[in-house]
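Reviewers of the previous submission asked for a worked example of the structure-prediction workflow described in the proposal, so we include one complete record here. The input consisted solely of the amino acid sequence. No template or homolog information was supplied to the procedure at any stage.
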Amino acid sequence: MEQTSVFDRVTEAAGVRSTLEAAARAARAMSGAGDEPGARAAADPNGAMTHSWLFTGPPGSGRSTTAKHFAQALLCTHPEIVGCGKCQGCNTAFEGTHAEVQFAETTGLSIGVDYAREEVIRWAYALPTTADWRVVIMPKADRLTPQAANALLKAVEEPPKRTVFLLCAPTTDPADFSVTLRSRCRHVYVPTPTNAHVIAELRRDKTKLTAEQAEWAGTVANGHIGRARALATDEARRNWRVQALELVEAIFDPARSYLLTRKLADAAGKEAIRQLEPIEEEEMTKLTNALGLGATGRGISKSNREATAAIKALEAEHKKRRTRKTQEEVDVALMDMVGLLRDALMVASGVDVDGGSDNAGAAVGGGVEETGPALINPDRRRTSSELARRVSPEGLVACIDAVMDAREAMGRNVRPAVALDGMMGTLQLACGVGQR
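From that input alone, the workflow returned the following structure tokens.
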């Protein structure tokens, strides 16, 4: 089906599409009504549009992508369709090259107050010059420090006339997002997409995937759109999934299982270095250039001491970032393990997955229709069936709990290798390995 609007790619669940479409139409009406409060209120009598939004949802739900589609609609130049998805405004807004869009992101562990003030708030208070609105998109607003959140709160409480803030976070929990800032935003919950929705997204992509590739990736990604794209297009991501599932398959082989846990932990660390090293080198070069290292003359001794402190601080930041990235890589593997254990639990519980286990859905009218309960990992049916044969449903639930406990342990800064070893020991106890 030909796409007629960016909202065709926004989920209908939980009223997300209708809410944002109404807001975008109201925003267009407001932009033509002048800046007088009375005129703008008359253009939006139902209060569909507001200047600050919070998008939440589980990992892979597409909360930041949904925010980008909303930004497209706000900056669309099509005279009739709000968010046509084809005009220059829509295209540049989604790609992040539109002059009136700022992606407020950081490669660091947090978004600090200086960045919030200098890079975000100052930019937000300037009037748009090439469109009716300016849009700030913050994909990881949960990384705002308390000071940065307070600074942004002041901007949201006294908003610029023509700026819209689109903030994204996993949840509205105070651990993820400022309670006070949350109270000033309109909340949009983006639920986990169905396999059908993920597959449809992959079919729309410009990567020209075959129907079989899109269906496989959309099924094994377990409702994670970004992961599905990576699995469909990146062999390294597919190999990482294989390593994760091999851990489950090795539960009954004690000697091999612990070798695989260490191999996975080491590989996660190396992948973190591979991804972050270019960024770190660039940051270090910028810092040393700014500090003017290598200069001589009066007062250089003191300057060198200050430079050394700054370099050590940056190195410490790099170490923390690598730790977090390593944990993220391991976490992806753990969730793949949970998916396979869930498949085994379904089989052990007698859930009928026949007819839907090898296919996430069937094409209907150009879309995809769900066909009922299905295995997340149909290509590992033999493994899930063998687990179901050898382990009770209660034991499989204990296995899933063990994997989730490992995730929580890493959240408490337990080293991935230690967390994985502990997890494997618990898995083997739950599965009766070595017990008579």
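Confidence is low (pLDDT under 50) at residues 355-370. We consider this example representative of the routine output the project will generate in years two and three.
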